[in-house]
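BUG: 3D viewer hangs when loading the predicted structure for this chain

Environment: internal workstation, default settings.
Expected: structure renders.
Actual: progress bar stalls at 90%.

Input used:
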Amino acid sequence: MLAHSSIVMIEARMPSTRAMKIICSILCLLVLASNLWTMRNWTERTGVYDDICYLRQAHLFQRFGLGGFDTNITRDDDQYFATLAREIGYPAWDDQARAPCHTPIGDKHVIQYPPGTGLALSFFPAGFQRVPLYAVANFVIFLVATLAIWSARSRRATAGAGVIGMAAIYFMVNPSKASSSMAPTMIVCAVVGYLTAILANAAERSRRLTAAVLIGLLLGLAVSFRLPNLFLSAGYFIVLLGIAVRSKASRDIWRFSAFGAAYLLGLMPTLIANAINAGNVLATTYGAVDATPPDFSLSIAREYFTDMQGALILLTATWTIVALASNVQKTAASIVAINLAPNLAFFLTHPISTPYYLMPLAMQCLWTLLFSYLNDPRHENGGPRDVAIGTKAAKNH
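Structure tokens produced before the viewer hung:
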């Protein structure tokens, strides 16, 4: 009795849910402001080969429009890339045959990376591209975090959303600043996490279909920012296909087909770039070293799981297991669980060169689990109702 009274008194002294939302929103805003303050000192020249190649891709789009998909090094007749390479101290800056992050394919040397990051950078003025791209990404993540905070129905859920939101905004500077490809990728991960909650929990069939189409399109586009983002779609394909096969209902088959078609549409920039630069839509512009990863080793796994991204993956895996075991947010948790397998299988064969390889997976999973928890109808009505896609409750709409 005394313990119960103490708990009641402690809860009475805690801020109200609305006050908690305001506090968490302000804290997220402060992290955002801190990021922007840090970014004021960033320059276009990071000394990393990846970033100058993304800038070259952006320059090609600004110079040639859609013709920028062709990245043959011979198009550097204005010495733009040679100048960038010289500025970061690359010794063979004037030798096009030895241009960094370019792959020899036939008689051409082409950028190995897909075109999306360069295309995103091309929307900003030359000489001031990296900072505004990250600023836009920071603002989007802040808005998604605020949406999560104000979607919470309790103080505990609000606090959890606030913690994840603040961490996600902070991660936009550390470690995501290591590669320009991470800025648009993290936007996709956050928005897809929100849409997955609609896909899993919305009662209206039209909303679930719209969410499936948007998720497919965004995940397809994500491949053009960073090729390993291809694995972020595995859980969606398998879960949506499984539901369609199990139910045999036309709406579930149509949802899976619409997701696949949207995904293919999102892949078009990457496929076009492959066709132009590698000669085939399914051919890779990466060299043999990158296309053939080393075997799995415990030392590589140890590198990841002693790093921050490893801790995030363990948190995600634990949350997923709890959700599946308690039959809470089961559709979203199934997507996350399946996504973890191919992503880990791929990355645990790649030694950590920079500490961000697993961050897209970690953040997509955390946003998905968070929004699915916040939007679970059981938290609104207090009952065990489950309107996950393919369930009886969903069939009534």
